[in-house]
Amino acid sequence: MVITAQTTSEVSREEEQWYSRKTCVCLKNYQNLEQGKCFSTICLNDRPPGKEKNEIFHPEHLKAHLEEYMSRFPKVRIVRTKKREGLIRTRLLGASVARGEVLTFLDSHCEANINWLPPLLDQIAQNPKTIVCPMIDVIDHNHFGYEAQAGDAMRGAFDWEMYYKRIPIPSELQGSDPSDPYESPVMAGGLFAVNRQWFWELGGYDTGLEIWGGEQFEISFKVWMCGGSMYDVPCSRVGHIYRKYVPYKVPSGTSLARNLKRVAETWMDEYTEYIYQRRPEYRHLSTGDLTSQKELRKHLKCKDFKWYMNTVAWDLPKYYPPVEPPPAAWGEIRNAASGLCIDSKHGSTGTELRLDACLKEGAERTWAHEQIFTFGWREDIRPGDPLHTRKFCFDAISQNSPITLYDCHGMKGNQHWSYRKDKSLYHLVSNGCMDCSSGDKRIFMNKCDPESETQQWIFQKVNATVLDKFNSGASS
Ligand SMILES: [Mn+2]
């Protein structure tokens, strides 16, 4: 949706509670404010005992209704594509017929909050080569409750598999007033405002990108590297419904991976290698023709990606280092008392760790067992050898809980372990130690006891230098 005008409504705390209690909700984007009517409503009934599903009335398929309704708003023009073009090319179509000085892109499942636009326009008025993004608040897909994201204002970033990530605003970039706009390396999705002329000078979006995905990296890299900048604006707030699953099919022959590779090959220079190291399957994907993209980059005299990393995303490698720092310990983890090894059986989130007979060298890659782990630079323990860790971490919740695999959050906390000189695996937040019983092969947390052999664990390989650094607290 490309818009120049939008109805807005403030969501107060009272309304928030109302949203979570009431059964029916107006679709406010279509609300007729004058008559106080809703254009569409979605009704969510609380699940009565014995009934299987919530009842949901979808808004009618829009077509003629949309035209009839929008005829009341002379400023709104409806532009239709002839065939399915996907988000990226459809946005470009909207932008190509827009006449205003500033383009604002929002998803259709957004609700702009009160006074969302002036703080964005203000930034662009000061510097027409700035792209600005509102704070994206969360509208719950179940009950339309409205709240800020966890951590609220953060910088946009990415990891080296090109997943979008959020990182804290470093103190160097924090203004005296928390409502001051701040620089962001990458926009979250596609919610932004841009001077129309500047957008087209930048080449709009790459039309070789299919349907959805990667375009937020493209526009972000491009604006920074080609003489512009990008700011997040805390005073501008737009609610966004985060869905649980993708409710449509993507046409065959298109893939997110291909889009990402296309963006990486155009903009990321030698840094693409870090992505291929983690995603070797990307090496063989075809990106399609990149000639016009590379010409654009040359024509605009854009800086290189190294400049971008050093100047714009300089704080990113602290959270997502392109080269993983060496781990402190890896290989099998053998219990001193029983001589048995920790085994996660290729489990995922929720799997309890157990003891099992240690596998012989060379017999490691069996489907039934998984006994190779890495105690890495984030000071968490993950299945896999240092070059191929899985994204599950040893996780404990108390001094007597079992130890399970859980999705790694990389933020230490309940996944933070210390491998101490006495061979104990110490869990900092619970002040407990990893223990086990060979009889029933359980592994669990316990009060630390330096005398107990069941609490001593022997890693197959240890890098003493790195481990000393962990234990001296130098890395945290
Ligand atoms: Mn969206």
Automatic annotation (TrEMBL):
PROSITE patterns: RICIN_B_LECTIN (PS50231)
Ricin B lectin domain sequence ranges: 327-460
Signal sequence, start to end: none
Cofactor(s) essential for the protein: Mn(2+)
Glycoprotein among keywords: yes
GO biological process, one term: protein O-linked glycosylation
Record has Disulfide bond as a keyword: yes
One GO term describing the cellular component: Golgi membrane
Gene3D superfamilies, per the entry: 2.80.10.50, Spore Coat Polysaccharide Biosynthesis Protein SpsA, Chain A
Catalyzed reaction equations: L-threonyl-[protein] + UDP-N-acetyl-alpha-D-galactosamine = a 3-O-[N-acetyl-alpha-D-galactosaminyl]-L-threonyl-[protein] + UDP + H(+); L-seryl-[protein] + UDP-N-acetyl-alpha-D-galactosamine = a 3-O-[N-acetyl-alpha-D-galactosaminyl]-L-seryl-[protein] + UDP + H(+)
Cellular localization per UniProt: Golgi apparatus membrane
EC number: 2.4.1.-
Pathway participation: Protein modification; protein glycosylation
One GO MF term attached to the UniProt entry: metal ion binding
Bilayer topology: Single-pass type II membrane protein
Highest taxon, organism lineage: Eukaryota
Family membership: Belongs to the glycosyltransferase 2 family. GalNAc-T subfamily.
The name this protein goes by in its record: Polypeptide N-acetylgalactosaminyltransferase
Organism (species): Labeo rohita (Indian major carp)
